[in-house]
Amino acid sequence: MRKPQAHDALGMVSGCGAVREKSKAEPPNGITEEVETPEGSEILGGLEESMPNSPSEDFGVLIQLKQKFEEIPLIKYLNEVPERFPLVVMLISFSIIAVWDHQRGLILWRNYATTGVFGVLLLVAVFWSGRMMIPPLALWLGYFAFILHFGGGSLGAADKGLGPFCWGDMQPGQGLCADGINGMYHVHPLWDRLTHGVGGVALSYGFAVSFKRLSTHFSANLSRPMIFWLAFGVSMSGMAVFEVYEFFGRMFFLTTDQGGYVNTAGDLISDLVGSTAGAYLGITMDKWQVLWEGSSQRPLPIIVQLTQSFIIPMTTCAFIAIADLLIFGGMVMGRDYDSLGMFLTAATT
Known about the structure:
The longest helix is centred in the last third of the chain and has 30 residues, at 224-253. The relative contact order is 0.08. This protein folds into 3 domains: 9-51, no CATH class; 54-81, no CATH class; 85-348, no CATH class. A two-stranded antiparallel sheet has the order 1-2. Helix 10 runs antiparallel to helix 11 (260-284). The radius of gyration is 33 Å and the shape is flat. By secondary structure, it is mostly helical. It has helices at residues 9-14, 40-49, 55-70, 73-79, 84-103, 107-127, 136-154, 184-187, 189-217, 224-253, 260-284, 302-326, 337-348, and strands spanning 20-25, 33-38. Helix content is 64%, strand content 3%.
């Protein structure tokens, strides 16, 4: 009787026979016969063992690496308070930009970045303990706005030539290539609008969240409209004060001209849009307990009264400047940057 030959899967694929070895098998009729099994099965088994890990296994490895990273003492310390990590990133980034600008002789943007460093140190003093419970998103938005400002301006050159990222035949406006002392502000007119808009969102969102917590802490029961108004007003006023800061920079240093009347009034429009959006996001996105749905408590807490004494004149002046540009074409201010700067300065007093 002829012995049946077992098919060799590896041999069928390759078209050639494989070395076989004998083994025992039990056929259906109960007669024990010797059959040949392919040695290639051992090869296939080895191939299966050497196959790459599945996506789920790779994901598990990433989770383990993340856990080990979070166990590093410094990272563990920073994660104890969510606000700490963005604050550290801000401090390091602005310091690097300040040093970089100093080495290239870009004094204007070195001063801006240095001011940012001191501003972050002030935020560290307020938020490092975590007692204010500010969502990190507000700080990350602020960081993004300042990177647009400091980073965008720093892409220029002190000698008004091409910036450091103008490689080969690149022209200003291509990629990160910029020229002039104001960098991206010089080659992209919308860069200034974007920076002010994002800054308004960050500031307004952060203050909306802050006033929610203050309302709970002082049992003030501030209403939604009141929190919206306070956040919007503080943001709009803060951005207007920044325009005053730029105005005085031009007066005293003569190198910080930010574009004149139309540019400054246009910045206020961007601030208006950003502040409105940020206040709305702060009311709707932040899940801090339940907002008081009734009227605000009377009398208002002293901190709210003091805040309103600052934001009412500032926002009023900002609205007048915006209306002058959009409705009267700058007739009230005579389309004069100095007049607008002094008008906003008067509001701060």
